[in-house]
Design brief:
Number of helices: 8
Number of strands: 9
Radius of gyration: 24 Å
Shape: globular
Length: 312
């Protein structure tokens, strides 16, 4: 499971004498990254010197990189019918958000309730030779807002409606990755205006990021916690305190130091959030309808002849 997204690099930091003549606010370029959803490690990164390069510029490289049996999670910046078609032909799948003005034809409802709607659709009009795709539209209600997700995984036994929504929500991890690279690891300041210099700084920052994530993962394992409970930022800031203790001969291993009970004030473990009590989420392939008057309003019950029209 991979996440792909693009991000614009910040303006050049004009402290070097060689950059004094560079126009104020000149951006450093644009990167596209593919991140593994489980490990958070980067799979690949591409760089373009044009800061406003659209995500579609990276599509050919992304298709070339993606092996079969890969689930690619992307935002609407990668919305392209031919891109979707090539992914499906390559035996891979995707999850994205449905565009507001997208034209589609409903084919069959898989399941429906007051909180979700799962259906097969035919997307596209064939205009200018674009392919017409058979896809799955999953709509999930959160509070008072409906969110619409599009996926090429047609079988709800493989990805149930709420899992589709949950996986897309985890796309935010790549935004957190970009934030860590820029704000925490200093990629917001580009110290040279040359393309080669920017790329060197970019690759070096990615390398440090991988080491940092690996360290945070070891801290999580030592504490028997999921990685989500560990603050990558505080692990990074805790390295300074470890280095001081190391110089004083009081510590030799960063994982042992960061997880020691006496160092809990370093804040490497995130404080638990107060959560509202919610009913258990139905992760079955065909979630049942809530509050409907008879089973024929639920396609699953109708399909299997359960209920015979009696109230549920």
């Amino acid at each position: 499971m991979w996440i792909a997204d693009a991000s614009t690099l910040e303006a050049l930091f004009r402290k070097l004498k060689s950059l004094e003549t560079v126009p104020l606010g000149q951006l450093g370029g644009r990167i596209c990254a593919v991140v593994d959803l489980e490990t958070r490690f980067p799979v690949e990164t591409w760089f373009k010197s044009e800061p406003y390069a659209h995500e579609s510029n990276f599509v050919p490289k992304l298709l070339e990189l993606t092996p079969d049996k890969t689930l690619l999670i992307v935002d609407r910046g990668f919305w392209n019918f031919r891109f979707f078609e090539e992914l499906i032909k390559g035996k891979s799948d995707f999850i994205t958000r449905l565009k507001g003005k997208a034209k589609y034809q409903p084919l069959r409802t898989l399941s429906r309730s007051s909180q979700h709607h799962d259906q097969l659709i035919r997307l596209g009009t064939g205009y200018q030779g674009n392919p017409i795709l058979s896809l799955r539209l999953v709509e999930v209600k959160h509070d008072s807002t409906w969110y619409r997700y599009l996926t090429s995984v047609l079988d709800p036994e493989v990805l149930s409606p709420y899992i589709v929504a949950d996986l897309y929500a985890r796309r935010w991890r790549i935004e957190e990755t970009f934030l860590t690279l820029k704000r925490l690891l200093g990629l917001s300041y580009l110290w040279t205006g040359s393309v080669n210099g920017i790329q060197l700084q970019l690759w070096a920052t990615w390398l440090f990021y991988v080491v940092l994530i690996d360290l945070a993962d070891e801290v999580a394992a030592e504490l028997s916690m999921p990685l989500e409970r560990i603050s990558v930022e505080m692990v990074f800031r805790g390295l300074y305190h470890f280095s001081v203790a190391y110089e004083q001969g009081k510590a030799t291993d960063p994982v042992t130091y960061l997880t020691a009970p006496e160092n809990q004030d370093l804040g490497v473990v995130k404080a638990p959030r107060a959560r509202r009590k919610k009913p258990p989420l139905d992760l079955s392939p065909f979630p049942h309808s809530e509050g409907l008057t008879n089973c024929y309003e639920c396609l699953t019950c109708h399909q299997w002849g359960i209920g015979n029209g009696r109230s549920t």
